Amino acid sequence: MLQIQYRMHPGICEFPSQQFYDGKLQTRSSPKWDIETPLRIWINRKKIPIVFCHVEGEEEYLAVSTEEGNEQSCSNKKEVDKVVKILKHLIEHEGLDLSDYENLNIMSQYSSQCHQIRLAVSDIENVNVNTVVASQGGEWNYVIFSTVRSLPGYRIEKIPTLGWCKKNLGFISDEHQINVALTRARRGLIIIGNKNLLSCDPVWKKLIDHYATLGCVVDESEEFPTRSSGVFGNQRTQHGGTTGCRNMSKKLMRKKVEEESEEEFYRGTDREQEMLEHRQTLNHEESLYF
């Protein structure tokens, strides 16, 4: 079992470690996630880069063509709208540069939702939208994950049976796919979904409770993201736009670190042994669905 990871911010890694790796998955510092200036969008006081956005949308079903013929797939317009709002905020107020493929991935487990999101952002260039299955093995600086499934409160069972959960949650409760979805982001993860319905599944309930304990759950009545959480005027971030002169040298240094192989960069330093351990863990990367 994988025990050391370099991909994710420890705040992103904490829940997957607890849920899927018996709390043994440790985070080591890496230029992949350890950046000088985090986004200002994060609502937690400690700026832990995770958010769960509660959205009570409505499911719609469409026929999607597959290799095995047409299949029913689910979409949720209200969640699409939320994805677009967050995406535009990241571009306009956080300076996120989408020309870098690794900066952002928008995910859903449903092909129909991915299709609707692509249509909604068709006027924006270089937007990555993929299913969770297609995202397996990839990693991005930031991930927006739309869970899609939703029911009005009066239709949600207080004590749901396994059959009820299977019907109303579908493969959104598949632990393999949950693990994949939660471990794609390096620097920030935003999940959009109906917390009341998702909490019927034990894994999702634990995740939502974990996020709530950290102050990382946004209710539908709350505005997110807010304009005050962005960057304005001539000030820019290092997330794709230009930086101020004071931060430029640090950005270039980190860029150089990322471009050089980690082996060469750390050779002859105290971290050489640590990098050797890191390479050994890659033999077990299937445990994290890399």
Automatic annotation (TrEMBL):
Residues 1-195 form the DNA2/NAM7 helicase-like C-terminal domain. It comes from the Eukaryota. The keyword Transmembrane does not apply. GO terms for molecular function: 5'-3' DNA helicase activity; ATP binding; hydrolase activity. Pfam families: AAA_12 (PF13087). Keywords: ATP-binding, Helicase, Hydrolase, Nucleotide-binding. This is Helicase with zinc finger domain 2-like. It comes from Crassostrea virginica.
